[in-house]
Write a structure and sequence with these properties.
By secondary structure, the protein is an alpha/beta fold. The chain contains eight helices and five strands. It has a five-stranded parallel β-sheet with strand order 2-3-1-4-5, with helices on both faces. Pfam families: Thymidylate_kin (PF02223).
């Protein structure tokens, strides 16, 4: 199960609440978040690029997407082991994040060539597990931006990166995410209110039904 949304949508908060609710219903839960900046060299290089520390690497949409995809490829065996050992594997950001942000950078929609390239690379070529369900935390871009700015002020060393600071990119990414949900891209999507926050207990009951 995957949680997707803009930077500042509240994915980590919802993941924590949903984990507690799932475990309260007797389910075993494993959690993972991408990019794994402190655990994988590809993600580390992508972070360098996002903060302008890797020359012109950050300008390459396909290059950045490939680094994020390679991070997931390196985690694939661990994900399969977690799926086998737990009732639920809850992932913060996954393939759709790569596809949405890259498509938005190129001013493409969900049916564009970039989205298909990400799908064929990560699913067909790398063999990554396809999620059973994807949850989209829908928030106005301004709300997400305000949350990201607040996090930047209150968390030492957590300055916004090039993607988080680009309001136009965030708006276009939100539009692609909405298209993914409407198309059930890769798997069924559930759109949640990211402002009020979902009812974690009710959501857990629905997911385990």
């Amino acid at each position: 199960m995957v949680i997707e949304g803009l930077d500042g949508a509240g994915k980590n908060t919802v993941a924590g609440a949903l984990t507690t609710a799932l475990e309260a219903r007797g389910a075993t839960v494993a959690r993972l978040a991408f990019p794994r900046y402190d655990a994988d060299v590809h993600a580390e290089l992508a972070r360098d690029a996002l903060y302008g520390r890797a020359g012109d690497l950050g300008e390459s949409v396909h290059g950045m997407a490939l680094l994020f995809a390679l991070d997931r490829r390196a985690a694939a065996d661990g994900m399969r082991a977690a799926l086998a050992a737990h009732d639920v594997l809850l992932v913060d950001r996954y393939i759709a994040s790569n596809a949405a942000y890259g498509a938005a950078r190129l001013h493409q929609d969900a049916d564009g060539e970039f989205v298909e390239w990400v799908r064929s690379t990560e699913v067909d070529r790398f063999g990554l597990p396809v999620p059973d369900r994807q949850l989209l935390l829908a928030v106005p871009e301004q709300v997400a931006a305000e949350r990201a700015e607040r996090r930047e002020r209150t968390e030492p060393g957590r300055g916004r990166d090039a993607f988080e600071s680009d309001d136009g990119l965030q708006k276009r990414t939100a539009a692609v995410y909405a298209q993914f949900a409407a198309l059930s891209w890769l798997s069924p999507w559930t759109v949640l209110d990211g402002v009020a926050g979902p009812d974690a207990a009710a959501l857990a009951a629905d997911l385990l039904a």
